[in-house]
Amino acid sequence: MAANNTVTLYDLQLASGATISPFVWATKLAIAHKGLDMEIVPGGFTGIEERTGGKTQRLPAIVDDGEWILDSWTIAEYLDEKYPDRPTLIGDPGIRPSAQMNEAWLWQTAVGPWMTCYLVAYRDRSVPEDHEYVTATRETMFGGRKLEDIIVGREDRLPRISADLELMRGVLRENKWFGGDSPNYADHRMLACFLWLASVCDTPALAEDDPLRDWIDRGFDLYGGIGRHPGLSNIFGLKQRAGDPDLFNRNPMANGLTSRNTGVKSTAGETARMKGQKAGA
Amino acid sequence: MAANNTVTLYDLQLASGATISPFVWATKLAIAHKGLDMEIVPGGFTGIEERTGGKTQRLPAIVDDGEWILDSWTIAEYLDEKYPDRPTLIGDPGIRPSAQMNEAWLWQTAVGPWMTCYLVAYRDRSVPEDHEYVTATRETMFGGRKLEDIIVGREDRLPRISADLELMRGVLRENKWFGGDSPNYADHRMLACFLWLASVCDTPALAEDDPLRDWIDRGFDLYGGIGRHPGLSNIFGLKQRAGDPDLFNRNPMANGLTSRNTGVKSTAGETARMKGQKAGA
C-alpha cells in the first residue's frame, strides 16, 4: 500500500503550474481514479534526467513505495495490478487495443493539427528555462520552420479540425463515457488530449455548443475538478465564419451504425427514403 | 438452452450463398464464438418482411427457443446474457463505445469508399430477384447516378483507401486481436467489414503483403473457417502503380503512441533526433 495513500508524480509543467503533457494528464487522472493522492515533483522539460536521478528522459514517472514506474500505459497497468480492489482503469484485455486506435485517431485528426495552431503559446507558456529547448525541438519537428510561421493561417484550419471530430461526437451521443456508465482509462487518454489543448490554446478550438462539451466538462470536473487548473484556457468559443465548414454536424444521421433495429417501425422511414419515396409513403 | 445447441439465423445472401451483409457476418461470427450451431434461413433483400412474418425489414434476425432477437448488437448482448458460461463477446461496458468508434472510422475510411468501387459486382452477385431493388436503392443512395458510372476511376481510388488504413495497422502491429490475446465482438465487427469486402470485390483492394493480412487470415479461419465460403473473392493482390501512394507504410514510426518508455536507453535515439543530432551523438 502506498505510504499515506500517496504516490509521487514527476509532473511536466507550464510556468502556471498546469500540466502540459497529455501523457502526464492521463496519469494524473488514473492516479485520482484509483483514489490515491499525489505528491507532485514540479518542473518542465529541462533537467528531467537529472531530476529523476537518471531514471528517464520522459514523463510521467511515478514512485510508489520506493518503486519507480515509467510510461503512462505501464503506470495504469501497474496501478490496476497493485490496487485491484480500487476502481478499475483497464477492465478487460480488449480495452487497450481499441482505446489506442481511438487515441491514435484523435492525435491524427486533432492533436497534431492543433499543434500547428498553438505552438507559439505552447512555447510562451512553458517555464522560462524551457523556451529555447521547446523552440529548437519543435522547429526541428516541423522541418525547420519558425514557430511564428507554422501557426499562420490557423483561423482557417481550426474550423476544419473541429468539423473532423464527428466520429467521436457520434460515440458520445450514445454513450455517457468511453467506459460505459462510468469513466475508464480510455476516457482518461482522450480527456488528456483536451486537457493538453486547454493548457496551450490561446484562442478557442471548439464551438460554445459543441456536443463534445458535455463529456469534456464532466471529464474536467472528475475527481474534485482535477482538470480545472487556473492555468488552463477555455477551449470553447470558436465562431463559425462565412465559408467555414459547420463546426459540428447539427443533423446527425438518424439511422447510423449505432441505431438499433427494433422492428419494422424503427426502419420504415429509412426504407422509404432508400426506395426514393417520402417517409410514410 | 437452445434446442439441439442451434439457433435459427435469417441470412442475407448473394446468389453464391455467401453472406453479403457485414451485420449478418458479425452475427454469424458471434453465434459461432458462443459455440452454437446455426440453422440458416436463406434469402436476399427481397421479401425479408414476408420471410420473417412481419418481424423485421432488416437482417440479421435470430430465433432462439422461440424468441426473436433483431439487430446485430442486440443479438450479441442477448447471447452474452443468455449464455454467460460460454466465451464472452462483450466483456466490459467499455468495449462497445470504443468498438463502435473504430467501426464508424472503418466505414468512413474504407467501407463507404469501397462501395463506390464495387457496386456493380454487389448488384451482379446478388440473387436475381434482388437486382432491380439493389440497383434502384443504391442509385438513390448515390444521388441518382448509375452504378456503372459510380465505379469509374476505382483504380485510382483503391490505392488511397488502402493507404488510409494505417491507424488499424498500427493497433494490429501491437495486438494480436482487438480483444487482446483472443478475439471478441470488436474483432467480429471489424472482420465483418472485410468479409463484406470479400463478398463483393471483383478486383483486389489490398496488397498481397498488407500487414492487415495476418489478422484478416486468422479472422476468416476462425470457428472452422467460417469466413472461407467459396463465393468470396480474394481481397489481396492490389498492385501499386507509378504515382500511387504507398499501399501501406513500410516504415512505421518507431516512437509512436504505443511505444513504451522503459528508461533512458529506450528514448535516447528519439531525443537525439528531436535535438537535430544524429542518433548516438
From TrEMBL, chains A, B:
SUPFAM superfamilies: GST C-terminal domain-like, Thioredoxin-like. The gene is ligE_2. This is Beta-etherase. InterPro entries: Glutathione-S-Trfase_C_sf, Glutathione_S-Trfase_N, GST_UstS-like_C, Lignin-Degrading_GST-like, Thioredoxin-like_sf. It comes from the Bacteria. Residues 256-269 have a biased composition (Polar residues). It comes from Croceibacterium atlanticum. It holds the Pfam family GST_N_3. Residues 249-281 are annotated as: Disordered.
